[in-house]
Amino acid sequence: MRQAVRRKAVQPRLAAHFGRRLEQLKDSLARVDLRVTIAWNTDATDVGLWVFEPDGTKVFYQARRSKSAGELSQDMTQGYRPERYQIAKAPKGEHRVVVLYYSPNPNLLGCETHVEVVVQRKAGSPDERVERHTVILRKVNDRRGV
Questions:
Q1: Which of 54, 86, 116, 133 is deepest in the core (most CB within 10 A)?
Q2: Do 114 and 41 touch, CB atoms closer than 8 A?
Q3: Residue 101's closest CA among 56, 54, 42?
Q4: Rounded-to-integer distance, Cα 146 and Cα 100, Å
Q5: What is this structure's pTM?
Q6: Beta pairing, strands 32-40 & 71-72
Q7: Cα–Cα distance measured from residue 9 to residue 24, given in angstroms and rounded to the nearest whole number
Q8: Tens-of-pLDDT digits for all 146 residues of the chain?
Q9: Spatial distance between the Cα atoms of 52 and 50, rounded to a whole number of angstroms
Q10: What are phi and psi of 48, to 5 degrees?
């Protein structure tokens, strides 16, 4: 919404609505240097989010918090989504994002799951930048970096 208003990609009436909605939401989504959210399209499927911080720390379901205050939300093992990593003050350097196919829905014929990965930098600020990626996972233990 913020980007659409900034780029004037929506009509004035919708821009005003977006502005009001963003104002209502501003306290619910804290400003953070980095937020990574994954969501997927198959039920009864376990997809994991791993984030490797610049110092090599792996934040994932068994280590949900890092010493630099990176944090992973709850581990979703049966539903569609979401899992989220965020860090208020990200240390300098590269954060690597990996999604892992822990277990597919046994009722799927092809076992293929599409994962949407949304990476927000400077999330919640006027300088927010958003990247969207789609990752296709096809078998157990399939790993894909973003």
A1: 86
A2: yes
A3: 42
A4: 11
A5: 0.77
A6: unpaired
A7: 21
A8: 777 777 888 888 888 887 787 776 655 567 899 999 999 988 888 899 999 999 999 999 999 999 999 999 876 666 666 899 999 999 999 999 999 998 877 777 677 899 999 999 999 888 999 999 999 999 889 999 99
A9: 7
A10: -110, 145
Collapse the DSSP code of 96 into the 3-class scheme (helix H, G, I; strand E, B; otherwise coil) and give the result.
strand
What's the pLDDT score for residue 76?
Answer: 66
Residues 6+ apart with CB under 8 A from 48: 60, 61, 75, 83, 99, 100, 102
Contact 75, 61 (CB under 8 A): yes
| C-alpha angle 128-71-58 in degrees, rounded to nearest 5 | 105
**Separation in Å, CA 96 to CA 2, 115, 131:** 26, 16, 14
Residue-level pLDDT at 133: 97
CA distance 39 to 62: 19
**Token pair recorded at residue 103:** 């277990």
